[in-house]
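Q: I have 213 residues here and want to know how they pack in 3D. Can you give me a structure?
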Amino acid sequence: MVAQRDRAGLLELLEESISFLKASAASFDAGCEAEAKRLAVTLRVLAHDTASSHSLLEQLGVKGQMVFTDTALRIDPSNLLPSAPGLVIMRMTMGVGASYVAPLDEVPLSPSRTHPPAPFDAWWNDEFTRDSNGTLWCRRKFVLTMANKEGGAHVDPSLNAAYESLVKHNGLGFTSTATGVLLPFEGNVAAESVRQIAHEFLKSYEAHAHLFV
């Protein structure tokens, strides 16, 4: 007979996963972009449920009680630009270059990025990034692509065309003359988006500390 995990054991695993998330976030911020894949795997463990796997939040019975920090720029249907950056911002330094980055707490103070915390299903599944090919991305898609297909916990044998276009061919399509020459923005949009998702998750976790006792 298989014994069920008790709450104390689940809370111990939760604390361990939160420590993984913080360590990977610190490593990412120090310049190790590949840590986004470990962030994605940990986010999957913490939050993603399927018919055969159960997230830590769900096993603890708190997922439906939580609301999540939401810093995503919404897709504006009236905007004629082909792309919408979603969670990342575009940072330009004259003479140096331009790149997509996770803003963390430096989210632009505008109504389009100021939202009340969202229940999990909306936070996880609502689409907010549209690339120049028209492909739509949500938090779940960013996290699971990096965790399940791009080397976080598994390497898919087939290339993901949408992901390849987004991260390796400036799939948002923005350009800058910050260096004096017209060049595409640098930075892995998926990795930076996952970093911002991890930031949102940690803020949400801290705001619900009373649920984890």
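Q: Anything worth noting?
A: The chain has one domain: 7-211. The CA atoms of residues 176 and 182 lie 5 Å apart.
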